[in-house]
Amino acid sequence: MNRLTSLSEEPLVTLTFGDLLDQAAISWPEKDAYIFSQTGCRVTFKGLKEQVDKLAGGLLAIGIGRGDHVSWVAGNRPKWIVIFLAVMKIGAVAAPQDLCFFEYAETTVTNTLKKAEVKVLIVEAREDGSTPFHDMFGTTEGVERGAPAVERLPHLTTLVTIGESCHRECYTLAELQQKGEDEKLQERLAELQSQLSCHDPALLQLTSGSTGLSKLVQHSTHAILNSNRYVALALHMDQRCRAVFSTLFCNVAWNVCHPIITGCTFVVPTTDAPDAEDILSAVQDERCHILYSLYVKNFYTILHHPHLQDFDLSTLKIVMTGGNMVSKALVTTSSRVLPHVTVAEPKGSPHRLSYEPPAADFHWAVPCFPPPFPAVGY
Q1: Which residues pair with 69 in a beta bridge?
Q2: Along the 378 residues of the chain, how does pLDDT read in single tens digits?
Q3: Rounded distance, CA 252 to CA 228, Å?
Q4: Any idea where the AMP-dependent synthetase/ligase domain is (predicted)?
Q5: Are 92 and 211 contacting, i.e. CB atoms less than 8 angstroms apart?
Q6: What are the distances in angstroms from CA 39 to CA 33, 150, 270, 324?
Q7: Over the range 295-307, which residues count as b (16 or more CB within 10 Å of their CB) and which as e?
Q8: The CATH homologous superfamily of the domain defined by 23-30+44-196
Q9: Please, is 181 exposed, middle or buried when counting C-beta atoms within 10 Å of its C-beta (0-12, 13-18, 19+)?
Q10: Element holding 158 (H helix, E strand)
Q11: Which part of the chain is CATH 3.40.50.12780?
Q12: Where in the sequence of the chain do the CATH 3.40.50.980 domains occur?
């Protein structure tokens, strides 16, 4: 990363995500960090820090700490963000899985969890208390907490559910957060946080498998943070900006932390993958400036939506799209249908996230736009 070239003279940042969250809670305590449109939930920076600190303390209470691998399967809801940042705050390694993870073959799920050496797995419990994990691997009744839950998963020692579970060996997320309120645990958390390095491993993600078997890619906080900072600088994302997060958190986990980096607000349309109407409604209802992490196929659908003109998109300034090649035809269509919107395509970001330092000839390809946001407002 020290050889990174960009359009900005800004120096690279060497903070951890725990440091950033603490600073954000001081700088913008009552400002919305995340807005979840489907449920109406609004999470302030102060409220986010409180929830994260409790869960981080709870993870420490059950013996999870620096370097341990924590995985979870959940939709786009506040708990996803809280888990992600709590894992980061104790120096553990986040390994979020696809929302459809337990729809894969058992061998795929087993191999993924083994390859990632997952120690803690967090899953959503259904209304009847059952979980997709137990559907696949069978009951683990009689297994003590802290012991391997399944013989085929030797690294897995702890199961946690979001919501009440009928399986007694599982902790619940609420139970961990209650444990984490202990004053001594919070003191221990603060001490641990002071020892962490931005160069510690922070995130594990599987590649798509398009070139063969999926591989695990490891990212440091330093890589994630500075990649996101330079994207934000290019797009002029700051505390005045509201951006629609246009895909599932698990698909682009390294992008979900923009609010604590820049002070912007992410608007999350739905708990599952949003469709064109969900995204357009979010822009209109929350007066958003950016469509962020919008897949090309979804951008195409939006541009050809039969009722596009019925939505008030006057605040929208930038569409950041990717996941496939952005054709000239798509950009031409956008300039005709949405003439006030600039299309941004981040080229090369996977390389910068995956390798530290990057190749000497690497350059950031997002153009630098004039500031699109009003001087007053959010």
Answers
A1: 93
A2: 223 344 557 788 899 999 999 999 999 999 999 999 999 999 999 999 999 999 999 999 999 999 999 999 999 999 999 999 999 999 999 999 999 999 999 998 999 999 999 999 999 999 999 999 999 998 766 667 666 668 889 999 999 999 998 888 889 999 999 999 999 999 999 999 999 999 999 999 877 666 766 778 899 999 999 989 888 888 889 999 999 999 999 999 989 999 999 999 999 999 999 999 999 999 999 999 999 999 999 999 999 999 999 999 999 999 999 877 888 899 999 999 999 999 988 764 433 333 233 333 333 334 444 444 443 332
A3: 12
A4: 22-340
A5: no
A6: 15, 35, 8, 31
A7: bbebbbebbebee
A8: ANL, N-terminal domain (3.40.50.12780)
A9: middle
A10: strand 158-162
A11: 23-30+44-196
A12: 220-354
Tell how strand 201-206 and strand 171-172 pair up: unpaired
The pLDDT tens digits of the residues spanning 317-376 come to 999 998 778 888 999 999 999 999 999 887 644 333 332 333 333 333 344 444 444 433
For residues 352 and 252, give the distance between their C-alpha atoms in angstroms, rounded to a whole number.
Answer: 14
The C-alpha atoms of residue 320 and residue 258 are separated, in whole angstroms, by 14
Which helix or strand (DSSP H or E) is residue 84 part of? helix 78-89
Cα separation, 43 vs 41, whole angstroms? 7
Q: Which two tokens stand for residue 163?
A: 């919501």
Its CATH architecture, for the domain 220-354, is 3-Layer(aba) Sandwich (3.40)
Q: Residue 159 carries which side chain, given as an amino acid letter?
A: L
What is the spatial distance between Cα 296 and Cα 346, in angstroms, rounded to a whole number? 12
The predicted-structure confidence for 180-199, as pLDDT tens digits, reads as follows 999 999 999 999 999 999 99
Half-sphere exposure of 101 (CA within 13 A, CB side): 25
Question: By three-state DSSP, how is residue 341 classified?
Answer: coil
Joined together, the tokens standing for residue 197 give 């390095």
> For residue 49, how many other CB atoms are within 10 A of its CB?
23
Structure tokens at 285: 């209802």
